[in-house]
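Hi U.,

Before I forget, here's the chain from the pilot set. I'm dumping it here mostly so it's searchable later in email.
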Amino acid sequence: MSAFDQKNIMAIQKHHRQRVAIVYPFLAHYRGPIFRILSEQEAPAPEYTAFSAPTSNIPSIEVVDPNLANIEPKKGGIRWQFVHNFFAGPLLYQTGIVRLALSRKFDTIIYLGNVYFISTWLGAILARLTGKRVLMWTHGFIREEHGITGWLRKRFYALAHGLLLYGNRAAHLCKNMGFDPDRLYVILNSLDYNEQVTIRRDISDNDLIKLRSQLFEHHDWPILIATCRLMENKRLDMILKAASLLLQRGQHVNVLLVGDGPARDSLKAYADELGIMDRVNFYGECHDEKILGPLISASSVCVMPGEVGLTAMHAMAYGTPVVTHDQGGFQMPEYEAIMPGETGALFRHSSVEDLVDKITAWLMRENERTETRNACYEIIDKLYNPYFQQRILNEAVAGIPASQCPAARTAVEPLFPENINI
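Structure:
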């Protein structure tokens, strides 16, 4: 950050409460809690306003109820103004975003950092020219990129005073690509933390025993759960193969697949081919947290052979360890929440045999279930929740260097273990 920018920010902070605009194409349902928390915070904390379309261009993504824009933040609403999206393939232009960059109503603008969003390029440039602080909320680099794509992405991210990154791996890659670590704020991710904590506190051991008996004939066998859309890239066939190999080793397990999708029929056929259909429950699609919480809590291990994403956080919120593959370049940032031996395990990418070994290791620790639950709860309670994100956002908006943020873990202090393949 230049001396001029730092001086500008300090002057703004001194004279009035900072006003922040967050520009997204739409608000995915799981982002509702963080936007509600940001909307309801009071002075001297910054005042946040969301700008997005009220609907999604992706039918499978559930969005935040637009009616929350009509409810006062103190009563659970969101400070939210609607814009129109115009997509042309991956390219997006949002109405009003250029005008927003020129407005004097906001001191800082946070953009979703997607290089294909044309209005974001224009808005970020104009916001910088008018003295605003610009932040980008983004995945950053998935892997080191070179050539024209890498050059373009670097130029795009360079428009921001700081990057709000989903994970430490992204911060590490950005640092390797030449970005100043003090501009890299690791904001992680979150779900509906308050609701999940309430639900998990209300679940009793008797509830779980009853639920297991409803799900499976052999309710005393451990349950391997996966909660996701049933798609080929999730490699759910590996869970079924693992269950078959475990059976050959004399280890009985049940498999609970919560979700629906185009791979459902092929997975059913594969389970039948392996001769394990009697121990696989294709539960179907479910978005009710009051149902999902007990299902996850009743399971011994959450297994996601493909990219794990938000599933990792969801499972750990209910105390269930997660097993997924170890290739960071083909993972979502939430896999960093997996601390091998504490909150889950990482198996060698595409190795069913190693997946079986990692599952077996966790099944042998069933008598340590309480310790495992507490370890999973701890990482969610400390890091993967909207209150942690709120603190990082407020610190980034204030212009505090990332290395000096009280809440932040940055590329300087990686959260993920050194043995993870980045």
